[in-house]
Write a structure and sequence with these properties.
The chain is built from eleven helices and twelve strands. It has 351 residues and is an alpha/beta fold. A seven-stranded mixed beta sheet has the order 2-8-7-6-5-3-4, with helices on both faces. A three-stranded antiparallel beta sheet has the order 9-12-11, with helices on one face. It has a two-stranded parallel sheet with strand order 1-10. Helix 3 crosses helix 7 and helix 9 packs parallel to helix 11.
C-alpha cells in the first residue's frame, strides 16, 4: 500500500503511543489537570440522567464569564465538536465561510449537517480581509478559530472588529471556536461580540481534560439554543454528568494555574520554533495554542518516512487544507521535543 493510501486521514495515528514513538500528532495536553477538577466529585450522584441543556450549576457558573448572560444561553455538550455539530444542524442549510488552513474536522462536520463550506485562504496564517469580503456575502455563517489549529496564529483585534462590523451589516452569524482562548502568549483573548455571535468552547485544552468530553455553546439567540437542545434530545441526550461536575470544579482553579500553563507552552513554542527554523523549515511563529505548520517538500513521503523509520508522528497539512505543509503539536515535554527534532534532522538526510 502506498503512503498516499495509508495517509488517508488522521485516524491512522490517533491513539498511537509507546514502543519509542514520539508523537507530534494529536493536540492533547500532556500536563496534569488542576487538582480542583478531581477533588470532591460525587460520582454516585452523577450516575443518573441529567438535563439535556446541561446541569444548572455549571451553566450558572459559565454565565458569570459572559456579560448579560444567564444559564439559559448555554448548552453543555460532548466536547466542542458536538457543539459545532448542533449549531450547524440548527442553522442548516446554507454556506459556511471557513479560513484555510482549518481544523481537519470542520469540513466534514459542516457537510454532515447539510451545509456547504466555502474557503477563504489565509495570508501568513491570518485572515485576508480582501478575500474574506469577496466570499462572505454569499454565506450564512462565518467560522472563526483564534488561536488557530493548525497554525497557532491569532487574529488581530482590528481584523476581528472588522469581521464583527461586516457580519452585523450583512446579518451573518459568526461561530467563534475559542477552545484555545486561554492559551494565548501575546495578548489577552478578545471575545467576538454581537447579537449574531455563537461561541463554542471546551474544558479540554485549558484544564487538560480532553477525554472527559465537556464543551459548550453560548448564544443570545434563543432559537439557536432551543434548536440545539431539540436535536441533542434525540442524539446524545445529556452530556456526561461526572464530566460536568469535574468541569464545574475546574472553574474554581486559581488563575495562577492558567498562567503557569501559558508559561510552559510559550517555552515549548520557542523550543520547537527555533529547532525547526534551524533545520531549514519555513513556518509561522505561533502566538497561541500548541501547533506549528511548517512548509515541507514531498510531505506524504516525509510524514510516512518519519513514522515508519524514525517512530515520529506528524500530521499531513493536506488534512488541514494545506497540502504543502505538515502539522506538529508540541503538547509533549521538552526532552521529547528535542529528541523528535533530532530524529527529524536525521530523516531530512534521506529526503
Amino acid at each position: 500500500m502506498s503512503e498516499q493510501n495509508k495517509l488517508s486521514s488522521p485516524s491512522i495515528f490517533i491513539g498511537k503511543q509507546g514502543n519509542g514513538i514520539i508523537s507530534f500528532g494529536s493536540g492533547q495536553p500532556d500536563l496534569p489537570p488542576p487538582r480542583e477538577a478531581i477533588e470532591g466529585i460525587n460520582i454516585r450522584n452523577d450516575l443518573r440522567y441529567g438535563l439535556i441543556q446541561g446541569e444548572i450549576e455549571l451553566r450558572e457558573a459559565l454565565s458569570k464569564e459572559y456579560p448579560t448572560s444567564t444559564a439559559d444561553n448555554f448548552v453543555i455538550t460532548n466536547g466542542a465538536s458536538e457543539a459545532l455539530d448542533l449549531i450547524f444542524r440548527a442553522l442548516s442549510p446554507g454556506k459556511v465561510l471557513v479560513p484555510r488552513p482549518y481544523y481537519y474536522s470542520y469540513p466534514p462536520i459542516i457537510k454532515l449537517a447539510g451545509m456547504e463550506p466555502v474557503y477563504t485562504d489565509l495570508n501568513e496564517g491570518r485572515i485576508d480581509l480582501d478575500d474574506f469580503k469577496k466570499k462572505v456575502t454569499d454565506c450564512k455563517v462565518v467560522l472563526i478559530n483564534s488561536p488557530s489549529n493548525p497554525t497557532g496564529r491569532i487574529e488581530s483585534l482590528e481584523t476581528l472588529k472588522e469581521i464583527e462590523r461586516i457580519t452585523k451589516k450583512l446579518g451573518i452569524y459568526i461561530i467563534s471556536d475559542e477552545v484555545y482562548k486561554d492559551l494565548i502568549y501575546e495578548r489577552e483573548n478578545y471575545n467576538i461580540q454581537g447579537e449574531h455571535v455563537i461561541t463554542v468552547n471546551s474544558f479540554s485544552k485549558t484544564y487538560a481534560m480532553c477525554g472527559v468530553r465537556v464543551g459548550y455553546l453560548w448564544s443570545n439567540v434563543q432559537s439557536i439554543v432551543d434548536d440545539a437542545i431539540a436535536i441533542k434530545t434525540h442524539t446524545s441526550m445529556n452530556t456526561n454528568l461526572v464530566g460536568q461536575d469535574m468541569a464545574l470544579h475546574a472553574m474554581s482553579t486559581p488563575k495562577e494555574y492558567i498562567l503557569e500553563q501559558q508559561r510552559i507552552w510559550r517555552g515549548r513554542r520557542d523550543l520547537i520554533y527555533k529547532g525547526l527554523c534551524d533545520l531549514g523549515f519555513d513556518l509561522w511563529k505561533p502566538e497561541g495554542a500548541f501547533y506549528v505548520l511548517p512548509r515541507c517538500p514531498k510531505p506524504k513521503k516525509f510524514v510516512w518516512l518519519l513514522y515508519e523509520r524514525y517512530k515520529v508522528i506528524t500530521y499531513l497539512g493536506d488534512w488541514f487544507g494545506s497540502p504543502d505543509r505538515i502539522r506538529l503539536s508540541y503538547a509533549l515535554d521538552n526532552k521529547e521535543i528535542e529528541e523528535g527534532l533530532n530524529r527529524i534532522k536525521d530523516a531530512l538526510k534521506e529526503v
